[in-house]
Structures are given as C-alpha cells and as structure tokens.
Amino acid sequence: MTKKEKKAKMDKVVEILKKQYPEALCSLEYEGDGWKLLVMGRLSAQCTDERVNIVCRELFKAYPNAKALADAPLSDIEEIIKPCGLYKMKAKSIKEESRKLHYEYNGVVPDTIEELLAFEGVGRKIANLLLGDLYKKPAIVADTHCMRICGRLGMYKEGMKDPFKTEMIMKELIVPEEQSDFCHRMVLFGREFCTAKSPKCDTCPLKTLCKDEIKIQKLGIKRLDECLDLVWQVFSQFEVPVFPPEGGAEYKRIIEETREKKNISFYGAIANGKVVGVLGMRENNHIGYFYVDSRYHKRGIGKALFNRMKEDYDLKEFTVNAAPYGVPVYTRLGFVPTDSQKNVNGVIFTPMKYK
Ligand code: SF4
Fold this sequence. Notes:
Oligomer: single chain
Radius of gyration: 26 Å
Order of helices and strands: HHHHHHHHHHHEHHEEEHEHE
Strand order of the largest sheet: 1-2-3-4-5-6
Bound molecules: iron/sulfur cluster
Largest sheet: 6 strands, mixed
CATH class of the largest domain: Mainly Alpha
Helix content: 40-55%
C-alpha cells in the first residue's frame, strides 16, 4: 500500500469510528483538571483505566490539588495507590510531578512535548494524551490498542510493538485535527471489537477495510491443490507417528488419494488472496485436515470454517478428527473432547478416533 492509499484508508476509518463512537471521551475521569490527568496517566501504566478511576477517587479526595499531593507523605500515597501496581515507583513519580507542577509551573500543565517529557514518569504516551486532551493539539497516543489495531489495518507490519515508530507513522496518516479523538476511539474500538485475543471480525465495522478480512470459500480445483500442499507441509513436519498412527506418511497417502478422487469437501479461509486456514470433510461427515496459519490463529478462523461447513451441509452432528493441533484447538473452538460420545451442541468430538 502506498502512503497515499494508507491515508485514504485511514480517512475512512476515522469516519466510520466517528459514527460508531460519536463521543470520543478519554476513559480517565480527570474532570478537566490537567494535574489530575497527569497523575492518572502515570498511574495507568500497566493498569486498567477503570481501576485508576476508582483509586483516584480516594486519592483526590485526600489530596485535592498538586500542592497537597506534593506535600503528602510518600508512604500514605503508596498505601492509596497500591491497587494500581508498581506503587512504589508510581507514588514517587506522582509526588514529584505534583511538586514540579505546583512550584515550577504554578499548577498549569505545560503545552509542549519537551516540557512534558521533563516530568518524572512522563513518557510520550502520556505527554501526547495531555497535549491532545488539554490543548487540542495533534497527538497520537500510541498505546496498546492503537499499536495493535493500526498494525492489523495494514499501516505497518502487524505485531510491531514500538510506540515511537507507531506514533511517527500514524502522525503522517491521520489528519491532525482528528488525531486525539481517533486515539480515544481506538481504545473503545479495541475493547469492543478488535480485542487482542479474539477480535470480532464478523461484526466489525471496519472489516471491509481491514487488510486481513478473511473470506471463507469452498475451494475450487486450483485452490484445492494449494490447500492440499499446505496441509501436507504441515503434516510432513511430523517425523514421529502422531496421528494417524502411521504419522505423516499416512497423511500423504490420504492427501494423494483425495487429489485423485476428490472425495473430500474442502473449505478454505482466504486472506490477502492466500489460503490461511483449511478444513476438510469426507463423505461420511468426518471432519479432519484442519490447519490454520499460526499468524491467523487468533482470528476465529477455525470457528468460521466449521460454521460455514455446518451450514452448507446442514450438519446436525459430525465427528472431528484430532489433527496435529489436537485437543487444545478443538477445545478452544468450543468442542468438548469426550470418550463417551456425548453430544455437545450437536457436535460429537472424538479425539484420536482413527482406525
Ligand atoms: S476485521 Fe477484525 S482484525 Fe480487522 S479491524 Fe476489525 S476486528 Fe480488528
């Protein structure tokens, strides 16, 4: 994607998220007080905003302004903020921040990134949060949500965890006046849809823009060959007999047979034009040959493949073979491994049943 294309994509993302979350409020309840946001920003490191809000109700009741917190005994601050974690370090930082703000800045939070970064415990994330929220300046808050989602949207290599790089890249791609609100919306969107573990891609309002939009397709001959090769690549890694008992060689035989007889219905998950997940079913409702590219494990592909197959064939129940990924995968997909052939949600899962 060229930079121009990325910008155009982000313009659309901004518009969709504006509709989805008209109010782009900061989730830290700082009541318009810059000092409170400074303190809360520091406390939010490796802690949820929710917990920070709860803790700060007590903290600000005991110390209602920067001077009061600056003069408070360290041990008392530590006691109150303990639930936020890293409390010794954080207590020291917020006491020192409050001292500096009160004595050097007369209680007014400065409006330049250089000055903000000179406060103890303030990194670029908090500095940008302050600039955007208090002064409406263009600012990208490269927190965990922003980094994860923008990577998934293809703005840079997915999985990159460099907040500085993220900030620099996104600064160029989001129109300045939208940056601060965009980051607040990223938090809301990241919690509701694009979660770290199981993003809700099916219902995601950005799915048509997401680089990893995944389509489930019944595979044609060309795709079938591609996917059989893929399956074989996976199975052939197993030198010791795994499953079936004959190991990889037996899979090879089955795959070759499949290629000839075409007696298996294959479904594939396609992302970026490539097969990234495979599910096959033999004539007798026997499901097996399951594979998901490790980069896509968290995208709900397995479930989507099963659902599509279940729908197309009106399957009330079927038997699942434990492929190399085995029990943990199927358990994650919601199937309960059972030796007793118990019917679970219309699915019989029989681990290692292969003769
Ligand atoms: S489609 Fe999925 S991965 Fe892409 S932005 Fe939406 S939830 Fe995130």
